[in-house]
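agent: user wants the full assembly modeled, not chains individually. Plan: 1) parse entity lines 2) check alphabet per entity 3) run joint structure prediction 4) return tokens. Steps 1-2 passed, two entities, 694 residues total. Proceeding.
--- entities ---
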Amino acid sequence: MNEKNILLAHGSGGRLSHNLVKNMIIPLFSNPALDLMDDSARICVPGGEIAFTTDSFVVTPRFFPGGDIGSLSVYGTANDLAVCGAVPEYMSLALIIEEGFSTDELSKILESIKHGAKRCSVKIVTGDTKVVEKGSGDGIFINTAGIGRLTGYDFRPCVPGDHIITSGDLGRHGAAVLAAREEIFRDNRITSDCGPVFPLVSAVMEEVKSVKFMRDPTRGGAASVLNELAESGSVELKINEACLPLSSSVEGLCEALGIDPLYLACEGRVIFVVGREDAERTVEILRKTPGGEGAGIIGEVTEGRPGRVIMVTKLGGRRILDMPVGEPLPRIC
Amino acid sequence: MKYKDEFSDPALASSLVCRIKETVPDREVSFMEVCGTHTMAIHRYGIKSLLPENIRLLSGPGCPVCVTPVSYMDAAIQYSRDPCFMIATFGDLFRVPGSDSSLAMEKALGGDIKIVYSPLGALDLARRNPEKHVIFLGIGFETTLPAIASAIVYAKEEDMDNFSVLFGGKTVPNVLRVLAGSPDLKLAGLILPGHVSAIIGVEPYRFLASEFSIPCAITGFEPLDILFSIARLLDMVNKGRPEVLNLYPRTVKDDGNTRACDLIQRVFCPVDSDWRGIGRIPESGLAIREEFARYDAARRFPIEVPPGKVHPGCRCGEVLKGVITPLECPLFGKACHPESPIGACMVSSEGTCAAYYKYGT
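--- prediction returned ---
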């Protein structure tokens, strides 16, 4: 790394986050489960294989249209398990609370965690609380870890011709949080897509045998997930801009701020890669499942330069869809 | 977004592309887009990949972040190290490298740096943080200047004492004069900035056609706007009749926004200005007038800023003048990339190098 200090951009889910993990962390702890850098680790335990994951949640504001830090901390971890083909079962909950934090607000957050856990059918079986001095934390930070039972689904490698599908419109959570942060955009009322994705992945895995890849495009957005797929699967991806589902309010906010919605997080969506023959049926299954009404095919795996994601624009032009570098920042004019 | 969809209609776009292909002369034609938002739009919509190969689209010095000299960033960084100050900045400047640091790095080391969406956001910060002095990093072209001027006027009306602007405003017409007269460029036409023109109107560009015989088109930022402007520039090239066309009448009035111009005039006065990589251009910048000197951070809190250090291999200046494309810079994509930018053109969201890198042109 060139930087002598950690920058905010190292936490953005883009290229700098990727480099931090790949260059500073993975080499120290290298082992087969970790090295895959998947959303969850697959580990063998007596009696079979489980998926294990952890995630920490820091969000400003803590309450935003469509969700809050509480439910988000459950869905985030449960979704990381689900997209690895696991049934989320148990979760830990650790709270780091800043001195002076309102107990009423804590109660609201805990209620929301309870509601989220119920929706995901996970049990919170262990936890921890720490209180830090005023000024040492931004209200509350939450960490959850989760264990899921792997279903034994056989994910095969992506090959040219496979189709790329999203379970719904993109960039909604990131846009909702950005809008909620700024007075000027509050009328926009973009609602986060924050929710469990297990119903979506289980519906698809039950009926479709050719699922190659599933990932929830959280931090860093769809662009990060697609680039990671292109790199790790050594394939080229072609995305069709005209097919990208985007809500007009998300698109409007992004236009105003000069931000690409594909770099904004989703918290209730899944990007799938399935065999070409199953693509239409996968979309049908998703559309019938709650939370998947906006599903659609957005592109395909192509023969070409591995690691590259090409966007075919609405006009038929071509360009690269790169991984984001840092947090999307609003532009000057 | 119906309005937006209409301006990116694929069928109309393809008929414009056909028209461009039919009318393009049998030689290389170089058009320059002056505005950073145009540069980004051209790459984002993949417009270059649709055009005949002998139409060269050059990017000009239209990204305010890119043309701001390193010494300005160094001054901002110096202020940010003083705990009395809170720095309020547009997001674009956050990662721009100074001589040996950036605001992003200073924030990581404890600098009080906030990103705002408008100069009025910076005023709000000052109102909410009376114990701090808020310095707003006021850079930009005519588009942004009225908002900076308003913030200064409001601050004066409210008699605020904890707000000032580190000002580096620039104006577009005189840098165009330099480019139009440049023997290196041989510009066949200029795509003029839509947002700047919404403020200044058509008149300030007339000299480009009358003195330099360069066809010009003021245009918007949707794909059809850009393709149409290229088609009309080709018409003028073919007929040998250069004019300044306003192809963006849905936003740009011929006489501009007189209220905004009056406000700029009231708060700022013209000065010679340093453009990163280009040098000093007469009357191409603005300074805060004496009447508002209290809100001029540089006058109120004078600091010594040594001359800015620029990487010896950095060719941002030539990129900004359109003399080379980023691909011709030896640092591009190697030592200089968005994660560790060497020049501002790689970091700003409207920078030419960032556009080339991000969209892989």
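agent: reporting back. Chain B has two domains: 2-63+173-246, 70-171+256-300. Chain B touches chain A through 50 residues (CB under 8 Å).
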